[in-house]
Design a protein that fits this description.
377 residues, GMP Synthetase, Chain A, domain 3, single chain
Amino acid sequence: MKKNLALLLTLGLIFLSGCWDRQIIEELSIALCMGIDVAPEPDLFYLTTTNPTFSDTALKKAKRLVSKGYTLVETFANMQRQRNHKLVLGQVASLVFSEEAAKEGLLNRILLELDQIRDVDPDVFIMIVRGASAREVLYLEPEEEARVARYLSDLIDKNIENGTIPRVTAANYWFSHDTVGIDSVVPVIELAGSEEKKKGVIITGLAAFDDSGKMKGVLSDQQAVHFLFLTGQGKKITFATKLNFEGKLRDVSMYIKKASPKIKARVEGGKPVIAIKLEIEVDIIDIVWNVDVTKKEDAGEVIAKALARDIQGNALKMISQTQDWGTDILGLGQHVRVRDPKWFKGADWIKEYPKCEISLEVKVKINRIGTVTNPEV
């Protein structure tokens, strides 16, 4: 019995001998960020990657590679020919696309290829750069963080945490793209710094995509906040606007505690009719208003009504813009589909959405008012 046990343990040591396919990190080229740009030739694109250098004798902390091809597999093969280390993609944290690439549908095409590559994390952040190429972004040297790949992923992550932008990863993109009645959005960045030296980036809005995967337009940073309101993601946001009091514009900043949209849809005479009710809770941080707060009756109600009008007007303009683009990024089509599946199945939603009759009712509840600047006393 003892001999049999000893034999079994010996065989176990043979078959459980540890990592038979181990890879030494110093011998790997670990891509942390990828950038996609259009090439002058039809169907070709440029791929730029950045990866850390682990060698003690390396002249720089990061290495950039640029390759051109018709497919990702081809560009990766071309990159491998430039490196004495094995190129690996498991640590890619962000993908940057130029605006031109997004407008031509290259974002959709590249993400489809990446979906077939098991190494790439489906939760990789995606973003679009305006006014520059993706390659320029990857060649940045931010002062706060020497590794531009880490800088980009931290920038997106912190703004998601602060409620400035929605979480958009490759997985989120495909969920919206493949779901009937909703289109995708992607954060937009621009290079920041002096004219002589661009050293950082700033998030400037959200790009709207149609059902074919092409970028149709960009919501400004203010419009992006209204998008978050109408999709129920508007919470923990610091927001500033100008409110009209008695014919004069007043600066006001606030903290959005909660935004709750309720959407009802129906089909009348073969035409979709959508009614949105939006309830928002806010804390006023600061307001410039020469009002006698000791005498003014219910100042909070006055502010709430003015804020409701402001949000309603700007949100309706944003909705109208998405109708002009033919991009249902709010997912209103899903509500129509649930309410009248038979009509929806026989309709072409992309053609119907621009013709939708959409109304919006906004109700604002102010929990507290902080500082009133320049009040009358």
